[in-house]
Rod shape-determining protein MreD (Luteimonas granuli), 161 residues
Amino acid sequence: MSARARPWVLPVSVLLALLLGLLPMPALLQPLRPYWLALVVAYWVIEDSERVGLGFAFTVGLVADLAFGGLLGEQALRLVVMAFILQRFRTQLRFFPMPQQALAIGGLLLNDRVISTVIHLALGEPLLPLAYWWAPLPGMLLWTPLFVLLDALRMGRGARR
């Protein structure tokens, strides 16, 4: 079954990523919350670049900005930068072994924190606490299981026996 035969996987995965981002967490664990939306958008940019690109990343980022109540356009900019880098290196990244791919995603998530910090500095907004710099680590560790899950759903593997 092709990815075209399962068009619901893309919007459902983005919706679930948004919901996971809104899910309340204890204050102690809050800094370790993975950027679910970035992980899901990264998967789709890598695996379905015909449908998912910069415009998609921008639109999803604006929806996230509205849903999370942050600075309008911040997440849109962060996701567009990530999608741009992924598009540029997509052909190489697709052939990386999964641990190396996870490291690359971790680097992108760290870059996301840098962009967020620069935006907050430029606008005079309060900076996130230093503990928030740990968030790329769980995102990097979750990349492989998330990739395998989304790939199985997209391709229809493992759904029926």
